[in-house]
Please model this.
Amino acid sequence: MTETDKQAIINSIVSSATDLASVEATTDVDFFVALKGNLPKRVSKSTLSTTADLNTAKAEFTSKLETALTAKQGNLTTDTNLKLENNKLSLTQATKRAAFITMWKEAGGDYDEGKDNGQDDCPCFKMNGVAISAAQAVKTYRLGACRGGDEAYGAESIYTNIPRTSLAVAQDNFLRYCGVLQVANIAQIKLGKNSFGGSKELTTIFSGTPKGESFNENDEKNKNNFGSLDHTAQTGNPKSFFLEKCGNLKVVKIKLTNSGTGGDLTLDLRDSPYVEEESLHWIIKMAQLTNSNGATTHIIVHDNVYENYLANPYQGDTANHPINICKPSIHPAS
Model:
């Protein structure tokens, strides 16, 4: 075997091999064939005239290959993003975490580096103003980024959601039966029947940014930016949304829409004794800004909320869109 032939083999293998485990030395010419198929076709058994030639070539090749690959693998140890274990190259945990933090921020979330201790239970991530652990952030992101349709977020153990800016149609069952859900951001999407029902720990529903900032309801130009409970697909009159078993709700900033189909609108909050006065004013105002077809918006409230409302009633511009605040016992459809 000429020096040119041996060097050609070495150059071919060194340029493509990834670790020494891919080199399986044997006792005959198959040694070269085993080297990931990189043996040039012009090198054959006849080229290696004697056993001594074969052994000499093998020893020389192995030595140079070990030197070259050791140098390559040694360089990996200086890259903090990579690790080499059992001849497998992968990203370090720190690098994976850094990549996720970038994706989380791109989704609008916040990250507090000062609180990050590197553990999965560290509450260093935030979405919609809610601080959550790294493990929760990963789960919330996975659900928000990878799933859609009626099942999105449904019956999941998440504390908040990644807001979505659009959906082709109104989505039913949104955030339904989410047992630990605290804050829901409906951003700019339309929601259908059964949304939020059974989410017993839910305290806040709003339309806004991932930073937890509500859209400006005082700017009439922004009225179409708000997410809504849309009655379009419902039948009967009045068309009703019932936030069933949402016993901890305080902030409810929901726009009710009917997409021009007419008929009264109803939001049923009878299971929510802590709804704040400001929320009722917000719902009334937005209903009157977005519905001008002469229909009435009915808001059914818990008895306690109704008594508080009577102490400081607010009707808004009833000439544009009538409002009926009532408790269950006096609502016509109850």
